[in-house]
């Protein structure tokens, strides 16, 4: 399913790849738009939806949460750097990471999605942050 994701956080229009999946991340009463890439990790994550998770801040850079199961690392690079808005799987720990600031190159980081909205909202959230992630309607 391909839908125009609208402006990216930097104001540029980000074109989806064929097969990408549009999802929503709801924090409190605010839903934010995101896109999952059509990759093994992205498909594994999509198969877990809907998810209710609690995000915790990590290193003043990202919000993280445990996942109910590990995601595939097939065909993924062995390491990646993350930009603000990236949704990733950190394979060594088996957790979800949603970046609100850029992060350096990390072994085992697999970026499989991107927030179109909500990066600032996540950055400002303190403490445990309940989030619902679902396929966008």
Order of helices and strands: EEHEEEEEEEHE
CATH class: Mainly Beta
Examine the coordinates and then state which fold CATH places here, giving the name of the CATH topology: Cyclophilin
Structural class by SSE content: mainly beta
Q: Give the fraction of residues assigned to helices.
A: 10-25%
Strand order of the largest sheet: 1-2-9-6-7-4-3-10
Describe this protein's structure:
The chain has 137 residues and is mainly beta. The protein has a single domain (21-135), classed as Cyclophilin (Beta Barrel), CATH 2.40.100.20. The protein is built from two helices and ten strands; from the N terminus they run E-E-H-E-E-E-E-E-E-E-H-E. It has helices at 40-48, 119-124, and strands at residues 21-27, 30-36, 51-58, 62-66, 79-82, 86-90, 95-99, 103-107, 109-115, 129-135. The protein has an eight-stranded antiparallel β-barrel with strand order 1-2-9-6-7-4-3-10. A two-stranded antiparallel sheet has the order 5-8. The longest helix has 9 residues, at 40-48.
At a glance:
The chain is about 10% helix and about 45% strand. The chain is built from two helices and ten strands. The protein is globular and about 35 Å long.
Q: Helix and strand layout, with pairings?
A:
Layout: E1 21-27, E2 30-36, H1 40-48, E3 51-58, E4 62-66, E5 79-82, E6 86-90, E7 95-99, E8 103-107, E9 109-115, H2 119-124, E10 129-135
